[in-house]
Amino acid sequence: MQDSTYFNVQCESCHGPGLPHVESVQAGNVIRPFASIAVDTLGTNGCADCHEGTHHPFVEQWRESKHGFAGTAYIEEGGRAGCQDCHEGRKAIENNFGETADYVEKTAADYQPIVCATCHDPHDVTNEGQLRAPIDVPTRENLCVQCHSREGVPPASNTTRRGPHAAQGLLVIDEDVGYRPPNFEYDETKIVSSHGTEANPRLCASCHVYMFDVTDEATGDFLLRSVGHTFEAIQCLDAQGLPTAGPCPLEERQFAGCAVAGCHTSEEGARGAFVATVASMNFYVDLLWDDDGDSVMERTDGGILPDVLGQAIDAGNLNAINLYDGVLTPAEGAIWNAQLARTNERTVWASFTVQGQLSCNSTTTPECTTQGSSNTAHKSSGEGVHNPFLLEALLIASIDYLQDYYALPGPPVQLQPRLTPPPGLRVK
């Protein structure tokens, strides 16, 4: 151990004094010295006892993160069997990594956020940073991808009203993600991949756990060692250059992590590529549907999908864009790809209804008449940057296929996927 801060760290540092345990064994009434997985101390031997302060503010930054107290999913989803594997700290430890050891909070009534021990194993040094899984493998065994890989492709059966869910990791490693129409021809030797290349061996962690020092510009004095545990890929900075929770304008975000990850040659080059990618995603999803502001897909809206919807309404087809009936149409597949690619500037794809279409299963339930239920999706694209080339290819293939499959009037859009990288991007 080279850092003097951690000299003499031993069992009692986390498990508390051993004498009561020894005395209880001798008395025949064993007191087990369970450690706590609490991040804040709160009267326990929590991680914050050591991992805090200006030189290693892991806990302070975690508190601001979506993994920590700043996220609310562990409260909202902690008791739901289909969600808690990734949204509740204890279940994530047990179900993703097979950890069955006891600890103070194991049977507590309160749900736990994604705490330090969810990702770090205090007893195992196999992986970097004592992580429970590696971060440098481009597979589902990657620590981050294990949770950020829930739903990447439309389900073959059952309802499809909920679109992509936690598909970030799948986009980065380009595995089982997106609706692939019959005309889709994604050639990895021609379409340049992005953050999953060999030039970025740390994958998600390169950008989302970027560490840097902050000094006072006037005096040169040290202010903070940021340890990347807000997990923001492009961190908001205040006037002193210190990380802040945000949100913030683009010019106040730091792109330095992108310039050292092995991909972009400069921070400004990365910023320019980001702006171009966001504009590209917005352009393609707008071609599919340009909402008039009411979050209802209507035949009078702009875009190709409203044209498909108009045909369906005229034909009395109530299931052409029914995301609840378990039958995937090309139009619904295109919606999936748009939801996968959408940016923060196109939030309509996260929750909307469809005019003149059912929102239940009229095949298995012939008496179905329900209309107007919401179609939802979580954000996965990282503003498109998790894999802009694949996303563009998926959207273009969907647009072309819709025009052909539904015999839409007018000339084809004539789009081509990007075959060369944006400025500043190295390729393998």
Description:
The protein is 29% helix and 5% strand. With 428 residues, the protein is mainly α. It has 3 domains: 97 residues, no CATH class; 162 residues, no CATH class; 50 residues, no CATH class. A hairpin with a 5-residue loop joins β3 and β4. The protein is globular.
What are the main properties of this structure?
three-stranded mixed sheet; mainly alpha; single chain; disordered C terminus; 3 domains; 5% strand
Summarize the structure.
This protein has 428 residues and is mainly alpha-helical. It has helices at 11-15, 19-27, 58-64, 73-77, 84-87, 89-97, 116-119, 168-173, 204-208, 256-260, 267-288, 304-314, 330-341, 388-405; strands spanning 212-215, 222-226, 236-237, 243-244, 296-297, 351-354, 375-376.
Please render the helix and strand layout as text.
Layout: H1 11-15, H2 19-27, H3 58-64, H4 73-77, H5 84-87, H6 89-97, H7 116-119, H8 168-173, H9 204-208, E1 212-215, E2 222-226, E3 236-237, E4 243-244, H10 256-260, H11 267-288, E5 296-297, H12 304-314, H13 330-341, E6 351-354, E7 375-376, H14 388-405
Parallel strand pairs: 5-6
Antiparallel strand pairs: 1-2, 3-4, 6-7
| Helicity level | 25-40%
The backbone outline, from C-alpha atoms, is: globular
Q: Give the radius of gyration.
A: 25 Å
Number of strands: 7
Instruction: Give the structural class.
Output: mainly alpha
Count of DSSP H/I helices: 14
Low-confidence stretches: 424-428
Strand order of the largest sheet: 5-6-7
Tally of discrete structural domains: 3
Largest sheet: 3 strands, mixed
Distance between the termini: 36 Å
**SSE order, one letter for each helix or strand:** HHHHHHHHHEEEEHHEHHEEH
Strand content is under 5%
The average pLDDT score comes to: 89
